[in-house]
Each structure stands twice: as C-alpha cells, then as structure tokens.
Amino acid sequence: MWLRARQTLSGLPGGAGLNIAHETLDRHATGARADVTALRWLDRRMVVKDFSYRELAAATARFANALHELGGRPGERVFTLLGRIPELYVAVLGSLKARCVVSPLFAAFGPEPVAQRMRLGEAAVLVTTPALYRRTVAPIRDRLPALRQILLTSPPSGAPEPGTIDLAAVLDRASPEYAIGPTDPADPALLHFTSGTTGTPKGALHVHEAVVAHAATARAALDLQPDDVFWCTADPGWVTGTSYGIIAPLALGATLVSDEGEFDARRWYRMLDRERVSVWYTAPTAIRMMMRRGPEEAARHDLSALRLVASVGEPLNAEAVRWGAAVLHRPVHDTWWQTETGAIMIANAAGAEVCPGSMGRPLPGVEAALLEQGTDGRARIAQDGHVHVLAGEAQGELALRTG
After folding, report:
1. How confident is the model at residue 232, as a pLDDT?
2. Which residues, 6 or more positions from 181, have their beta carbon under 8 angstroms from its beta carbon?
3. Which pLDDT band holds residue 154 (cuts at 50, 70, 90)?
4. By CB neighbour count within 10 A (0-12 exposed, 13-18 middle, 19+ buried), where does 197 fall?
5. 390 near 371, Cβ under 8 Å?
C-alpha cells in the first residue's frame, strides 16, 4: 500500500524525487504554509522559540551546504547524539537533503553503546553537544577510525575541544539555499538501531520512500491534520522520535511541539494546556506517572484543545485507557510497530471504538496474523518453509506479511 501511494505526497515527482526533507519541509516552505510554525521549541525554562516552515527549510539548507563543504558525500552516515534541541531537527533534515543516511543515538547512552552503534553503522560524521562529547565520545574516539568529523552544537566554554568543529560557525557561512540532488525513492535515508536487549543491536535501514508510510500512518492512526498542534514525547534517539517526532507532522504541515525538559507531570499538563496541543503521542509509562498525580492535577488545566491521545513503546494497560477517558475526556489509543517497520502497523485508529487492553487492528495495507509457536516460543516453520496461521481465539507469534 505504501509503495503504491506515492502520488498522495509527491508534490514534485521529478528532481528531488521522494527525498524526505523535500517532502517534509521544502514543499511547505514555498507554499501556503511557508510562514506557519513548523517547530515550536521550549527550553528547560519553557521559553518558546518558533521556526516557520520557511525558516526551518533555510536552516536545514545551511546544514546540507555545510556537510558538502566538509566533504560529505551521499550515502555517508551522519549520527546525532542530541537531546530535543533545534539543532537536532536541523541536522536530521539537513543530512537528508544532502542524501546522507541519518542514524540517531540515545543521549543517555554511555560510551560503550555509542561506540558499538557507530562502529556497526560506519559513522562518518557526528553531531553532538560539548557536554555529551566530553562524557560519551571523547573516551572512545580513538576506536572509531571511520569518524571523520565531529560537529559541536555550541562553542565549548574555554578552549575548543581538540579535533571538533563549531557547528554554529559553519552554518553562519553556509548558504540558506540548497538544491537537493536526484533522490531515488529506494535510496537509504535512516538507520535505526534496536535496543540490544536480545543481543547485539541490529540496524534497520529505511529508505526515502518511507516518508509515505510516515504520513499515511499519521493520518490513519493519529488523525493528524495540517492545523494540528502535535506533541510527540518520544526521545529523538529512538525510531518513534524520528518517524513521528520529526518526519510525519512536518510532512503533513502540522505544528510540531518539542520540549527540552525532562518528564514532570505538572510541566506536561502545563504544556498540553498552554500550547493547546490537539494530538498527543506519548508512552504508557508517562501516562501511568500522570495517573499517580490524581485527577485533581488535570482539573487545574484547560485540556479542551486535546482531540486525540495515543501511546507507543510498551503494552498499554486497560486502566490507562479508562483513565484517559475519565480524566482527559479522551481514551488513550494504543499503537504497535517496531524499529524494523519504521511506522505504525496496528492501532486503535482515530475513528475506531477503543477496546481497553487491545492494541487495535492492522492499518490499511497491513496484513497481520498469529502463527503457531514451537516449544522455543518462536513461530514453527515446517520443512517446506511454510508457517501455520492460527484462526479464531488463539495465542501465537505475531507476524506481518511482507510487501
């Protein structure tokens, strides 16, 4: 379904092709939404800084030009080790414009998980902060021979870190205009690593045409519209923070809210109230932590703008769904997908009646089934290579049909 749906997004079928950055920014930056707020960023003190689609397009063009100036080539891996700061969005979308492959890292990782992923991903460029560089990257840098450049998001206090580049300086001298080179829809764009809980982290490579799935699933599962104010609380170091924390809302022309601060129930209620968030995508753990504050905290805030609440990342318990309906006046819609799929596959879609404890149904174009399990808990594969699909009420291995 996603491959056949290219015409639903592509404004300019030639040239840039289905380059993700073009589909998320440049179409809007030159159209009716050019001066609409694309990114609303709040720092730790909740001071707001807005970026229009026009401004964000110019900033990402500067980053793409800076990569070119530094010798970056299409297909090279650009890693980000950043929290939710404006430079994250500029680096990700600017790298995609330059047709590099973006690989986000979790900022709370220690040196070893970072080194492991950067070696596996053959990192050529890293964008990070001075503090994260000193804490996480400097101890392992000599073990990363493929790493050519490290861009630091702000000038370090005191003497510059040896062998690093001041990102602000190279952006200042770069042009705000960039012509995206020809991009095939099957060109690699995003490299996400699994958590590593089942062994060595596995890299899942997604292509530029994945933007069609990001946009289509955000419409189908999250009912995301151009006039929405959308807040995705996922960390940018994981797949959700990229697919729905950057790409999907910008592809649809919505306003994306980004909060630098850490989780705090009162702060989050204030965010929902003050920023008039209409679609909120968060995690079951956060929902449960807000539940502990009691309904009194929610009652202190105006949440009338909130149209849809959805969750991702772990099983959503039925109590959280019922709490959402009673306290937020919106049930929490569960969604299911994986790093490997890159986009929502199964969900309690926006227009569906939510059954507490159920993660919903497959989205249009997705075929899911339960497979018979062997004694090891994995799908039983017959000698001819086939699997047995279970029918009716059953317990088995969840599988998706490829294609």
Report:
1. 98
2. 16, 74, 99
3. confident
4. exposed
5. yes
